[in-house]
Amino acid sequence: MNLRLSGAATLALFSAGALAQAPQKPIPGLTETAPPYATESVVNHPVTIGWPDGRRPTAPRGWEVVKFAGGLDYPRQALLLPNGDVLVSEARTLPKLDAEPEVARGQALSKTTGYSANRITLLRDADRDGIAEQRFVLRDDLNQPFGMQYANGRLYVANTDAVVSFPYQPGATSITAAPRTHATLPAGVQ
User: Fold this and answer.
1) Among 17, 23, 104, 170, which is disulfide-ready with 83 (CB 3.0 to 4.6 Å)?
2) Phi, psi at residue 129, to the nearest 5°?
3) Does the reported pTM lie above 0.90?
4) Per-block average pLDDT, block size 10, for the chain (190 residues)?
5) Residue 181: how many other CB atoms lie within 10 Å
6) Residue 47, Cα to own-chain centre: how many angstroms?
7) In sequence order, what are the residues at sequence separation of 6 or more whose Cβ sits closer than 8 angstroms to the Cβ of residue 63?
8) CA-to-CA separations, 106 to 74, 98, 113, 153, in angstroms, rounded
């Protein structure tokens, strides 16, 4: 068998081989990490402070930060639709009865657990000024929705127990159709 490679292909193969065999040099200031499970785990919980009145985040020169919407109940993900509407999944984690005291305390302080809105809210900036003037409950009765994706006339929602979809066209302000289940998930299993 006669194999001929172009100069670029030969160089790519040579470079890949050279990189794979190059001696590893230590990076100054970095230390090796311990193997998995060799050290105690650390859990850090966020501190929820909200957006104080009269204050706004600092932006790079030439940019401005404005509050698009407020009053959401633990927003998890935002999805920009083709028509400019924004969907926001709202869900908290349900507290685990067998949680370690330190974990339960951290979750309570960060407000990440408790009653869950279990909904998707639609925000509309009708006049395109950067602030949503309209708000609609697009769909409720979900199970801790997190991820969302719109494709081919359907809104896909990743709940804690299943991935479902609904028929949806951008511009509609509610979804009443029954969900189609695409995959079930082991909710609550650790």
Assistant:
1) 170
2) -100, 5
3) no
4) 44 46 69 84 75 86 91 92 97 78 78 82 95 97 94 96 97 97 80
5) 12
6) 18
7) none
8) 16, 14, 10, 40
pLDDT at 15: 45
CA distance readout (Å), 7 to 13, 21, 22, 65: 10, 21, 22, 51
At residue 188, the pLDDT reads 58
